[in-house]
Amino acid sequence: MSLFSAASPTNWPPIAPGWQRAAFWAWIAGMTTVAFFSLNSRYGPPEGPGLDKIFHCVGYMVLALQTQPVFSTRRAALIAALAMIPFGIAMEIGQDYVPGRSADSFDALANSAGALIGIALAPAFRRLSARVTAKLSPS
After folding, report:
1. Is residue 34 packed enough to be buried (19+ CB in 10 Å), middle (13-18) or exposed (0-12)?
2. Cα gap 7→77, rounded to integer Å
3. What span, in angstroms and rounded, lies between the C-alpha atoms of 54 and 25?
4. d(CA 87, CA 94)
5. pLDDT tier at 11 (50, 70, 90 boundaries)?
6. How much is the pLDDT for 139?
7. pLDDT bucket at 123, cuts 50 / 70 / 90
8. How far is CA 62 from the centre of its chain?
9. Torsion sign, CA atoms 99, 33, 117, 83
């Protein structure tokens, strides 16, 4: 089955044609942005008690949610969303090799928590994405 093939409407709300590709590139852009800021010594974590953990959690929640309109099956979207957990861990390990940055196991935990929250919110987000793209698509 193709990444962008039509899903069965009975078990997975379909995303309007053309929107899956846009969602895919938005997801890639999101991961690229996270990798850029994670592995760049010029941009450190936000100041404030616990603020960086909130950014980590929300960022990875968004990445996990972004998988929903991309994939044509629930299983593929779940696997991609779960892949955000090792991606977050890899970003933290990578920071150990960036001057001025260091790996933080609590950041990795916040990344994982965000991905899991995104997975929990995924069914509602998928339904919302299907409705919005259907209304925005030309008839």
Report:
1. buried
2. 12
3. 25
4. 10
5. low
6. 61
7. confident
8. 5
9. negative
- Which uninterrupted H or E stretch holds 95? helix 84-95
Query: Angle at CA 99, nearest 5°, toward 102 and 85?
Result: 40
pLDDT higher for 50 or 120?
120
In Å, the largest CA–CA distance within the chain is 53
* Paired tokens of 30: 């999101």
Tokens 């209304």 belong to residue: 135
Does residue 126 have a pLDDT over 60?
Answer: yes
Task: Give the Cβ contact number of residue 89 at 10 Å.
Answer: 17
Q: Which one has a higher pLDDT value, 104 or 49?
A: 104
Compute the radius of gyration of the chain from its Cα atoms. 16
CA–CA dist 129, 136 (Å, integer): 10
Residue 19: partners with Cβ closer than 8 Å, 6 or more residues away: 69, 129, 133, 136, 137
Nearest to 72 by CA among 124, 31, 23, 121: 23
Position 20 scores a pLDDT of 85
